[in-house]
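Dear Dr. L.,

I hope this message finds you well. Following up on our conversation about the binding site, I have prepared a predicted three-dimensional model of the protein together with 5CA. For your records, I am including the exact sequence and ligand specification that went into the calculation, followed by the structure tokens. Please feel free to forward this to your student if that is useful.
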Amino acid sequence: MRLSRYFLPVLKENPSEAQIVSHRLMLRAGMIKQSSAGIYSWLPMGFKVLRKIENIVHEEQMRAGHIPMQMPTIQSADLWRESGRYDDYGEEMLRIKDRHDHDMLFTPTAEELITDIVRSHVKSYKDLPLTMYQIQWKFRDERRPRFGVMRGREFYMKDGYNFDLTKEDALHAYNRHLVSYLRTYERMGLQAIPMRADSGPIGGDDTHEFLVLAETGESEVFYDSTVTDLSFGDRDIDYDNVEQCAAIMEEFTTKYARTDETHDEALFNEVPEDRRKVARGIEVGQIFYFGTKYSDALGATVQGADGKNQALHMGSHGIGVSRLLGAIIEASHDDNGIIWPEGVTPFHCGIVNLKQGDEAADGACEDLYKQLTNAGLEPLYDDRNERAGGKFATMDLIGLPWRITVGPRGLKNGVVELTSRRTGESEELAPADAVAKVIAIYENHRVVGL
Ligand code: 5CA
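The resulting structure of the complex is given below.
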């Protein structure tokens, strides 16, 4: 993309309505525009990152054997009356009437709808196990929408639902989701710690939230500091392997780590004092096992091997896809702007032309642009007729992890400069070597964007 032809409405001033850094930077970097309280338009660069995150979630869900599908955003109230949640959900549910005076609603989650689909089509234990998921817009009429995309009213969420014959199978699905989530967040450059939590309006007793530690997080968390030493890394996972998933589950959930809802002071005090941490976190996902709560309410049964009908064991599993943009920025920025991890960056590499109109500089930039593009990467070429300082400030603000700077003086010596946004370190390289280095950096981060 050439910046001169892109739509990147960056703001020079700090917007007064933004209280936390991620919200401020998303507005300043021209990623989102508020449409009404807690509802945003995703401008091109914000949309690009949203898609990158979404694609990582898809890749990791499919790797775990989960099946993508899509359900509607507007649902009839009937199913929700059947489950009893139409009244229970309260004011967070946006209720709508259609022209026939039917009660409709904008989906805050989709346990009822998916259970209805499964009860209609799944009749035998032979059709199980089954996990389907969607990535879809949700609406919750939050009392206090705030912090930009962190607590929106309209937000983008991955919601997945497992259907199993037995509790044991459903607990494997739970563990499998935990493992796939650990992998998902790590690919986004995040450490998200599974913490024992409360299930709220979804229901059930087994639930973990995934929290990214950040001062601006809305949840108070209590943990043994050694949980932060755990890293998922590059493990070879067989998602059908019950023991392997259970072992990873145990590894990541045995140490004390709880949200304030489930915090137990006596248990916490068993952790050595110098390891006891009280901090704040951003909830970027949650997994639930709730047994037969919805299948009982909606009559979702299958015939078991013994010929008898039995209720399906279920769980649901969410990732806050749009909230993740805020969480990533909270975890990765400096005074000058965002620092995107390679896995989610909107463009792989910036190209800054220090002297637009200079024949050698223009030609070298065009060559770099072409070579990176041909290698399947997306460079952002700042080809505007602007001062170098302004170009650098924009690049720092929008946070591309790598920048190639091209100027007539360097070119006389046959070099351009490759700079890391994270460390600020630069090296002078021949243009072809700079291209090769950028290609190598992204070898393991091939997520296709828009
Ligand atoms: N049905 C279950 C799992 S699919 C469910 O709805 N879980 S949830 O309520 O925990 O939501 C899943 C994730 O969506 C949360 O972990 C959080 O990251 C994100 N989320 C929830 N509410 C909001 C909101 N108002 N704004 C942005 N993200 C949100």
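In brief: The longest strand covers residues 276-291.

With kind regards,
A. P.
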